[in-house]
Amino acid sequence: MRRIGQGHTLMGVTRRSLAIDAGVAALVFGLSWGVLASGGLGIPDPRAHALDGLGTLLAAACALPLVARRRAPLTVYLATGVASIVLVGLSYPVDFPFGPVVALYGLAVAYTGDPRPIFRRMALLAAILFVPVAAAVHLATSHAVRGILSGMAFWALMCATAWIAGDHTRIRRERIGELEEHAGRVEREAERERRLAAAEERARIARELHDFAGHAINVILVQAGAARLLHERDPARSRLAISTIEEVARSTIGEIDGLVSALRENGGTEPPVPADPAALDELLAHHRAGGLALVTDMRGTNRGLPRGVAWAAYRILQEALTNAARHGPGSAEVAVTFEPDAVDITVTNPAVHGAVPGGGNSGTAAGGGHGIVGMRERATLLGGTLQARTEHGVFRLHASLPHTTARP
Fold first, then answer.
1. Pair 371, 364: CB distance under 8 Å
2. What is d(CA 219, CA 198) in angstroms, rounded to the nearest whole number?
3. HSE on the CB side for 249, CA within 13 Å?
4. What is the pTM of this model?
C-alpha cells in the first residue's frame, strides 16, 4: 500500500478490483433505489417523500462513488454520507444507509492503520459524526421523534460493525503481507545458500580435477622423456612409452571434457580421493572399524571406472556414511551396483528424531562439503541423479552415476 496526498490511499487497483467495486456500486444503487421506491423497508410512512427524479439522483450519489472507494476512501465516504443526509433531510424513506456503510468499511481498511495520527483521527471523526448529523437533520426537518432513537441506534450499530470489520480486514492484510515478505526473504536466503554450497562444491571438484590433470601431465612428461632417450637404444621400450603417453592423454582429455564445461565459472584444498576399484571396499572397512554397523550388498564387477566417476562415487558414499554415523543410531545399509554404463549407490539408515543426514539441502558432511547439495552437484556434473528423502523415520539416499565403458 502506498499513501499519497491528503490521506488518499492508492492501492493495487486492478481491473478485477475495479470490476468488483463497480458491481458493489450497482448493487448498492439497486438496493437504495428499491427501498426509496417501496416507501421504506417496513410499513410505508404516508409522510415520506415519494421517489422522484431528485430521489433517484441522490440514490445514485449514495452508491456510484463506491467505484472509487479504493483510491479515495475518505472522499467517497463523505460523498455518500452527504447524499444520504440530504435524502433524510428531504424526508425520503431512507431506512438504511447502504452506501455510507460500505464506504465506511473501506475507510476503516485505509485509515485505521495509517502511521499519521491526523488522518486516523480525521477518519474516525467522520465515521462518528455521520449518525448524529443524520439524526439532527431528521429532527430539524420532520419534527418526528417517534422511532428516531431505535432507527438511529440501528444505524450506529451497522456503522460500528462496518468500522470493526474494516479494521480487522486491514490487520489481516498486513499480516498476510508480512508473512509473504518473510517467506520471500527465507526463500531468497535459502536459494543463496544453495548457490553458495553448489559453487563451493564445484570449486572443490575443480581442484580435484586440477590435481588429476597435473598428475597425468607429469606421467606424460616422464614417458616422453623416456621415449626420447630410448628411441635409438631400445626401440621397443620407446614404443611402449609412446603407447603409455597416448593412453594417459586419451583418458585425461575424456575426463576434462566431461567436467570442464560445468566448472568454467568457479575457482578445496583437499587431496584427490582414491580412484582404484578397491577404494570403496576400503572406505566401508574404515567406517566399520569406526563403529558403524554396515550391511553391504556389492553387485557387479568392480572394474576400473573413469576417474571422475570413481571420485564422485567415493565422495558420495563417504559423505553418506559419515552422515549416517552422525545423524543416525550407528547403522546403515549400503547397496552398490556396478552396471555396464553406470554405478548405483543406495544408503539407507534410521534418522534419529527425524534428523535429515546432510542437513537437507545445506547441512555439512564429510570432508567439509555441504551435504546433499554437494553430493547432488557431483552427480549432476556427471549427468547423473541423486535423490534423498526421509520417510517414516528412515533416510534413503540413491545416486546414479552414468559413464561410458572404462577406458584403458
1. yes
2. 32
3. 11
4. 0.48
3-state secondary structure of 333: strand
> What one-letter code names the amino acid at 407?
R
**Are 128 and 224 part of one and the same domain?**
no
Distance of CA 317 to the CA centre of its chain: 31
Residue found under cell 528423502? 389
- What is the pLDDT of the chain when averaged over all its residues? 78
313 Cβ contact partners less than 8 Å away, ≥ 6 residues apart: 280, 305, 336, 343, 345, 399, 401
Per DSSP, the three-state class of 394 is: strand
Residues 51 and 133 in one domain: yes
The residue that leads in pLDDT, 40 or 340, is: 340
What's the number of domains the chain is made of? 3
Rounded to whole angstroms, how far apart are CA atoms 169 and 102?
Answer: 13
CB–CB of 302/338 below 8 Å? yes
Provide the residue range defining the domain that includes 116. 2-146
Q: Which of helix, strand or coil describes residue 91? A: coil
Residue pair 347/333 in contact (Cβ under 8 Å)? The answer is yes
Locate 152 and state its grid cell.
438511529
- Give the number of residues written for the chain: 408
Per-residue pLDDT band for 27 (boundaries 50, 70, 90) equals very high
To 5 degrees, how large is the angle CA 293–CA 294–CA 296? Answer: 165
Cβ distance 358 to 351 under 8 Å? no
User: C-alpha cell of 400?
Assistant: 546414479
State the chain's maximal CA–CA distance in angstroms. 133
